[in-house]
Structure formats: C-alpha cells, structure tokens
Amino acid sequence: MSMFVSDIGIDLGTANILVYVKGKGVVVHEPSVVAMEVETGKIRAIGEEARQMIGRTPGNIQAIRPLSDGVIADYEITESILRYFIEKAAGKRRLFRPRVVICVPSGVTGVEKRAVLEAASRAAAKEVYLISEPMAAAIGCGLDIAAPAANMIVDVGGGTTDIAVISLGGEVVAESLRIGGDHFEEAIVRHVKREYNVAIGERTAEEIKINIGSAYPNTDKHMAVRGRDLVSGLPCTIQLSSGDIYQAIEEPILNIVEAIKNVLEITPPELAADIVNSGMMMTGGGALLDGLVRLFTEATKVPVHLADDPLTCVAKGTGQVLNNIDKIKSGVLMTSNSFR
Questions:
Q1: pLDDT (tens digit, 9 = 90+) per residue, 319-337?
Q2: Which helix (H) or strand (E) holds 220?
Q3: How many CB atoms lie within 10 A of CB 228?
Q4: Co-location of 18 and 103 in the same domain
Q5: Residues 204 and 105 grouped into a single domain
Q6: 141-146 own/partner pairs: CB under 8 Å, 24+ apart
Q7: Are 249 and 184 in contact (CB under 8 A)?
C-alpha cells in the first residue's frame, strides 16, 4: 500500500459502508456492523466479520449497528469504524492524512453533521467534507446536476429514503424519510411473529426480503423459512409467500410513495414538467426490491428508472466529488471543515 494516500469518499450507510479511493474506485463494501464485548466495550470485529456474528453471538459479545436511520447513534464506535475503513482503504503506513468526503442524509441536523465531521477528523482525516446523499447519488449515476433542467432522485438506503429534485447544482426540493430497507426487514420480523407465532432473526428477514420480497401485491413466489415456534419454543419451518411479505412491508412502502408525491407537489411547475419528461432515478440497495419501480411509476404517473448499479451510486458520487473538490467546495458540498 502506498505511503502517499489518495483522497477517500465514504458512503456512511445504516446497513453498509462503501469506501471509494481516488483512482481505484470502490475498494471496500462491508456491512456497518460492530461486534463488541459487552462488559469491556472492546471491539472484536468490524464489517463483514461482525455481520456473520449477528444472532449467533454468545452472551458476552453483542453485534451492533452504530448508525441508526442514516445518522450516528454511537459516536465512539462510529469513529472506530471510520478509522478501520480509512486504514483498510489507505493503509496504516501513510505519510499524509487523506481528504475525506462523507455522505449524509439530506435531513440531518447541525448537531448530527458535527458528529460526523468530528468522528471523521479524529479517525485520521485531514479535511472532511459532507455531501447530501441524493446529491452524491445523482452524481454517481451520471445525472447532469449542473444543468438548468430538473433531475429527480429517490435514494432508498438501509435507514433512510432521500428524495430530491436537483437543478443548477443545488437541491430545489428535498425530503429525507427515516424509512429504508432495514424497516422492511423489521416489518417482516413483526409480521411472521404476529401471523405465524414464529420468531425469525434479522439475517433471515433480509434473505426473505431479497428472495421473495415484493412491493407489488400479485407476484407469486414461495420460500421455506426456519425459525422458532413461540408456543413450543422449538425450531420449526414455515412456508411464506410473496403475498405475505407484501402485506408485511406495505405500510413503509406506501409511506415512501406519499413522500415522493409530496416532493412532486411542491416542485416548481417548470421543473415538474422536466421530471414528467425525463422521469426519476432510483438508487440505493432498497431500490432493488422487486416491483418497486413499477409501483412508483403507477403511483406517480412519472417514468421511473433504476440506476445501473444502485448500491454503489452514492459511493461513486463521492468519488467524482473528490476528483473536482477544488472546483466545487463552495457549491455542492453541504458543509466542510478542516482539521489541521
């Protein structure tokens, strides 16, 4: 690993963290999970290794997510995570501290921004810049954000859904909803418990969402799911259908539809006309949910496009911001802070 370090872009997601290194592309894509010893607070594993421990850890080790709904829930652990991923991307033996661009949801408060800036600066960044997720996603999936025409982006992440109408390099209208892929999984866990009296874990819920999850009521897929019978306390297997899962996740999905409609309603008429012509772009891991593009198209009467690689758009966007950071320090970036 070179001792001279490149600048780094970080998509600090609730579910996953992606790290982009200038000149190399996305070099890290791991879950935002930490395995900790309960009594000592010592970190045992970070990322993929820690995710493997979810639901399987002995009593003295707890697998936790330090980011909740796209913002820092545990400051010290987030700092450790950032340090770990910066070192993984840039190497420990480096002469210079990197410049870092970090994505945050568009609805974060000043206090939340400050927490991200401080965590990153203490985790070995020379300068830290924040950019809003929808702006990074728009740049990462190739939209021309500087154009006078409107671009609409819907970024469905793990903890948040960010919706924005972008024109002339700025967000004209933006809404950040604290609903995302993680909430779909929580809804699946609750539904299986309520309807079948069976307890399933977080990882099982994620597998169900990926395999048979649907945002559209009339798809027909089935899956055998193992869990624990809450009456007998014994392991059991049940059959779930995509119709079951639609029932489970209908409410959070309809909340996202309402938020998209709200943004369209308050978009200036000229820009709304652009959106009807060009459509809206969907990014984020949650955008891969089966039937979501069709549902959004029908609900809004606006064409909906799925980005080529929706999971990496935000990280790639941070990378492009890094390449032009001197030009756009004053424009696209939400806030910046230098720590010498």
A1: 888 888 766 555 445 444 4
A2: none
A3: 15
A4: yes
A5: no
A6: 141/281, 141/283, 141/307, 141/308, 141/310, 141/313, 141/316, 141/317, 143/281, 145/169, 145/332
A7: yes
